[in-house]
Amino acid sequence: MKEIIVLSGKGGTGKTTVTASLAALAKDAVLTDCDVDAADLYLLLNPKIKDTFKFWGSQKARISEHKCIRCGKCETVCRFDAIKDFKVNPTFCEGCGVCYNICPEKAIDMVDTLSGHWYISDTRYGPMVHARLGIAEENSGKLVSLVKKTARDIAEREGYKYIITDGPPGIGCPVISTLSGADVALIVTEPTAAGLHDLERVLKLAENFKVTVKVVINKFDLAQEKSKEIEQYCIYKGIEVIGKIPFDEDVVKAISKGVPPVEYSFGPAAEVLKNVAVLSFGDSGCRQE
């Protein structure tokens, strides 16, 4: 079993478009969306949810009115201004527990909080594990770990050869959790100064996980000099650029219709994405047209 994680330095670089296309072309894969803060892979893969699970990822403080003597110590120590008039605002509470520990009357409890949901679904391309974190909820890294573990369990139990993951953007905690145990990090970048800078940041992070890194440059033809600069940087770092996707209005049309571009078009972008799939899975690992 091989885990391929699709990453990018920021949102909006085409990461989910690439992931959806790989999912549509892979013959034998479990699919996951680990961008739990802003999951959107489902928009292109149209999963049918089979099982829904609650995610209890954090705790919030709760003041017991009959125990509280209104000394105000909890409000004084709360650096998040979550306690006013001896009541806790759950949106502001970070669950740090300082108020719980300082309360002289033990009038504050830390209560498990429903932080989101995760799902096991069917798609036309294979099983999919995905999740959605609640607004302003924490512990996305823990939820990512749960999604990945479930995907691995399914892949091992049912004999799938690949796990294809739409990873979170950036280099934060959920990205670190996504990279854990992965085999390949496929980084999608764009030909801009910010794109190169973000690529460098993600590469530094990926190096700590000893995964094989490959790069795809999206809309490379919109700034060809910058694309060459990115290619030169990758050569210097010993990293393979396995795809240069041109700007193609068919990609926009495919996304607006909610289908992976490789199923909507035979245009230049779709052809590059098909080649990226072949380089990722091999001819035998791709669906036949």
Description:
Keywords: Iron, Iron-sulfur, Metal-binding. Pfam families: CbiA, Fer4. It comes from Biomaibacter acetigenes. By secondary structure, the protein is an alpha/beta fold. It folds into two domains: 1-45 and 134-283, Rossmann fold (3-Layer(aba) Sandwich), CATH 3.40.50.300; 54-112, 2-Layer Sandwich (Alpha-Beta Plaits), CATH 3.30.70.20. Helix content is 37%, strand content 29%. It contains eleven helices and eleven strands. The protein has helices at 15-25, 42-45, 73-77, 98-102, 140-158, 173-179, 193-207, 224-237, 249-257, 261-264, 268-281; strands spanning 2-8, 29-33, 48-63, 83-84, 87-88, 108-123, 126-133, 162-169, 184-189, 212-218, 240-245. The strands form two sheets. A nine-stranded mixed β-sheet has the order 3-6-7-2-8-1-9-10-11, with helices on both faces. Helix 1 crosses helix 11 (268-281) and helix 5 (140-158) packs parallel to helix 6. The protein is elongated, with a radius of gyration of 22 Å.
